[in-house]
């Protein structure tokens, strides 16, 4: 008997729904005979017979003592479990949620009230408008209807059904479900699934702001979700905030707690969620998910908070990351944060004999860091050679990168050579390495820049000019250092007016906060052309820009670092002081030097300039010294 089979299925797990098995058989499309509901196979037609559904429903009501809605809910659930989505949806459509919604809310309220007055005593729900088993069965049916609509591509309608489930429970239990509420029914399981499903349905429907509201509602409201469910929702919400392309805006005023941190944008809210996930993992409340660090790396990198990223990686409990890999990752973070000394120490530890001495990526990073300083240039040469020996012509890309870094390190080392012959030898080797890199990495603009810079250092100005032009073409004119290199090479050829035109073009292409060095170079070019008054005006623009950069800014703005703008300001005051001294304006020169000494009291350049006006004043007052 089909009714007995349904009863057995119901008694095994009354309120559980599973993934849909791939069965074409549909209870709702069968013919039922009075003798035992014998099935009849047709010609494969997928039309549904409403009369058969009603007959099956009637049989269920008689066999299991169910009312109309409950019978529909049970029959629809069985159809869904068998994979008959359209048949299940046709059955669920017979349930009028507007009619039963008020009864379900009343039953939930009454159940909560009885639990409050009879703590510790069992309650069968007698006298309620509807039993809790019936309420759970109907809410599960509505949720299954939402999943059926989702399977058929009707995400918006599915979201409305899912929303009804949550609103029904929330209106009845505004302060959350009591602890003992779900002991003898599976209402909590149904609600938890609906909370997790609703934001996904809104996203599939293209209603992204509704999805954001649903995510926030899921995390703020007292749904009594377990830590793993909350973690999944937090992670999905963070992913949507980072990559969804929709500005979420701040949470509503009603959900804000006085004194609490309020995220100002998507990235801040996503970072906050990911921080919570890391904290819960540290407390062993959730299992480890490596993608959390991946998303956090993206979020903190976008906001320029590399040191914070390093701190969070260091806080990850031991055993998750290999020690040497953790050091290498931290080195990358500190490199991006501009703390090259810390990064170099970490990468040296990574390459230690007891760790990973053959870690090619770490060796390349070490060569890059060492090549930026004359003090460590010899180590950079060593690290680059070690990568070249490891490659053995198997990895052309890595060989090209190593050759590039070798050329840079050799060029840096040549500047501090003890003899001219040693310097000439290293400069020659640097050019050979950079030319080899330019052949294998002909699409890497940084190789072309380094080749141009090295040729400029060795006074091969025509080659340097050609490399600078190629570099700017590869960067589509969007590189500050490329414009500077081109202008410097032109000025070295005494084409000062052409160099100034290049700087003006660069100022048009460069953001406001990156214009400081260009303005200083422009002022020097104007001085070289004898345009002293124009140079003074340019320095004034530069100093005004530096002052504007000191104002507090929100995270993520691309202003200069504190140390960089102080150095630029110091150099601007010193340049301006020398300019005024050359013009014979001693008082203005003194004022500029006082400004420079306030920034760096022991600067040798400032004291040297301070001596000049004193000397010339003495000559002007007493000609016997001449």
Give structural notes:
It is a single chain. Helix content is 68%, strand content 0%. The protein has 28 helices and no strands. The protein has helices spanning 2-12, 50-64, 68-81, 85-92, 97-117, 132-151, 155-172, 187-204, 208-220, 227-243, 266-282, 291-302, 306-315, 323-336, 340-350, 360-370, 377-391, 396-414, 420-440, 445-457, 461-474, 480-492, 496-509, 516-528, 532-549, 562-582, 586-599, 604-621. α3 packs antiparallel against α4, α25 packs antiparallel against α26 (562-582) and α27 runs antiparallel to α28 (604-621). The model is unreliable at 1-48, 60-64, 120-126, 553-560, 614-619 and 621-626 (pLDDT under 50).
Mean pLDDT across residues: 80
Radius of gyration: 37 Å
- The helix tally amounts to 28
Give the class from helix and strand content and strand pairing. Answer: mainly alpha
Strand count:
0
Which shape, going by the Cα principal axes? elongated
Major sheet summary line: none
**Intertermini distance:** 126 Å
Summarize the amount of helix as a percent range. Answer: 55-70%
Q: Helix and strand succession? A: HHHHHHHHHHHHHHHHHHHHHHHHHHHH
Low-confidence stretches: 1-48, 60-64, 120-126, 553-560, 614-619, 621-626
Q: Classify the beta-strand content into a percent band.
A: under 5%
